[in-house]
Design goal:
Helix content: over 70%
Number of strands: 0
Shape: globular
Largest sheet: none
Number of domains: 1
CATH architecture: Up-down Bundle
CATH class: Mainly Alpha
Distance between the termini: 42 Å
Oligomer: single chain
Length: 340
């Protein structure tokens, strides 16, 4: 299963490159009013499909055992949806005086506003042997919170930058995000046994739809001759994203391992991954709604598109190191326990 998941993620990365390349070659296909009709197929059908799929796949019935760890959940959610975006905002006040493309900097802020992903943090926590139940709970709960909090954070830090009225944005979010998610959960209750037996390819379905959203987003960009992205800004953003990801992983490690923190080594593993990972699957559709019709939407999306593979690559590289630390700490705890 881990091999299949890794292969799916590698193919998805290749798919992102091909989607952007395809948009560059023939942008007229995916622009608003073009043959694909993204103003309908993407803005409504594709986004609703992703969240209906999420509703079907979220195993909320297995989360009750993790509810008792209130302190752990509060730490992760506050770090992810409050500390992370606020820190990025402060950091961007310094970066605003640099020559980095302003829309890429706004994109960095959107990364900070995103909820945790449903899959990658759980997969990496499991690979290390950490608190998988806590990772599942916080990924799922964070996704639900993100549906409400992420649009509010985006509007707070960036404003809508859209011609769509505030009430219309939340109306569309409700109809294309909340309603499909709830329907998916209701349907899951009736076909749960079938889903467990057949194990439908939820990840592959969401990834395919997401590639279509990415393709149409970049079609709008490449069809606009006024948009120019310099390589210098892109390289700097890549370096900044890597630094942010690594710094926050170190920060969560230090916070969760300090004296009297109350967290076990297995808890720390879940905290490191759940607090620092951001959802591309939920993020891109939300940006498409909140920044509907904005000519720089694709540039705003670029940092999130970069952050996604960086978090998976960096997390995978650090799995052996984190695992050896966790095992050594657990052995140390066992050795210090008094014998009866």
């Amino acid at each position: 299963m881990r091999l299949l998941e890794r292969m799916r993620k590698e193919w998805f990365m290749i798919g992102i490159v091909l989607a952007i390349a395809g948009a560059k070659l023939e942008p007229s296909v995916g622009v608003n009013g073009g043959p694909l009709k993204p103003e309908i197929t993407v803005s409504y059908i594709a986004v609703a499909t992703i969240f209906f799929n999420s509703g079907l796949s979220l195993k909320t019935e297995e989360l009750t055992s993790a509810l008792v760890h209130i302190k752990l959940h509060l730490f992760i959610q506050i770090f992810t949806l409050a500390f992370f975006p606020a820190t990025i905002w402060l950091f961007l006040q310094l970066l605003s005086i640099t020559p980095i493309n302003e829309w890429l900097l706004k994109g960095l802020q959107t990364v900070g506003c995103m909820p945790p992903p449903v899959s990658s943090a759980v997969i990496l926590t499991k690979a290390v042997g950490g608190n998988e139940a806590a990772a599942i709970f916080n990924s799922a709960f964070g996704s639900f919170l993100g549906i409400i909090i992420t649009p509010l954070l985006l509007l707070l830090f960036l404003g809508s930058s859209s011609s769509v009225p505030f009430t219309s944005i939340f109306s569309q979010l409700f109809m294309t995000v909340v309603v499909p998610l709830i329907i998916g959960q209701i349907v899951r209750r009736y076909i749960k046994d079938w889903l467990e037996r057949k194990k439908p390819p939820f990840g592959a379905i969401s990834s395919s739809v997401l590639l279509m959203i990415i393709y149409t987003t970049f079609c709008d960009t490449f069809s606009n001759p006024n948009i120019d992205l310099d390589k210098f800004s892109l390289i700097l953003i890549l370096f900044i994203i890597f630094s942010i990801q690594l710094s926050f992983m170190v920060l969560t490690f230090l916070f969760s391992t300090r004296n009297n923190s109350g967290f076990t080594p297995a808890d720390t593993v879940a905290i490191i991954f759940c607090s620092t990972h951001k959802s591309l699957t939920l993020g891109i559709p939300m940006l498409k709604i909140v920044f509907a019709g904005h000519e720089h939407l694709s540039l705003i999306s670029v940092p999130l598109l970069i952050y996604h593979p960086v978090q998976i690559l960096l997390g995978s590289v650090l799995v052996p190191t984190i695992k050896s630390w966790m095992v050594s700490r657990q052995k140390g705890v066992k050795l210090t326990r008094p014998t009866v």
